[in-house]
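Table S2 (text version). Query chain:
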Amino acid sequence: MTTWQEFIDSQSDGGGEQGGGEQIAAGYRALRDGPAIVDRSYRALLEITGADRAEWLHNLTTNQVKTLGRGEGNYAFTPNLQGRILFDMNVLAFAESIWLDLDRRFLSLARKHFDKYVITEDVTVTDRTAEFVRIGLVGAEAVTIAEELGVPQAKALAWLSCVDATWKDVSLTLMRHDFCGLFGLELFVPQDDAVRLWEGLVDSSRSLPAIPVGGNY
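Corresponding structure-token output:
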């Protein structure tokens, strides 16, 4: 089976900066109008479980955690004891867990930091990064794909809120995330299904195929 990284590497035309301004302009139009599709697998994912998870994390971050309801999220920093910011993250609340969405560059630091503060609390920190591929959908027409995924209300979702979605027989988590400053969504896709999903969304036979942006596709 082709891995996600092998697939993404195979999509590169090796063109480097060929196309220059035209390629940049086309990418901008795709992001503005959509549906643009973006590889977001440079993001990492930690899962916090246990009965004390919300209060424990609330004490370690700069934003509210205890007040988050199921499917809600917010943006927070994690400081050290001196108040220096170590890393930032999106905090996503689910029924039985909390997900921490962060840059992969900070994954090792985050693991060490959080593990240090699990003392007597009922808290478990698990790295789920390798289990999911992250795919972004951007632009006004991204709502058409959200409708296919069973989320017709995507445009009305609050920032960083999460809902269940389905593509064919694949269960997904969809997050409202305007990471480009434009209307955007992010999909947490099981690793084994990511290639099939990407190929399905960019299929030229679709009435409105997704347009890859962000690489030499």
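Notes on Table S2: The chain has a mean pLDDT of 92. The CA atoms of residues 14 and 216 lie 7 Å apart.
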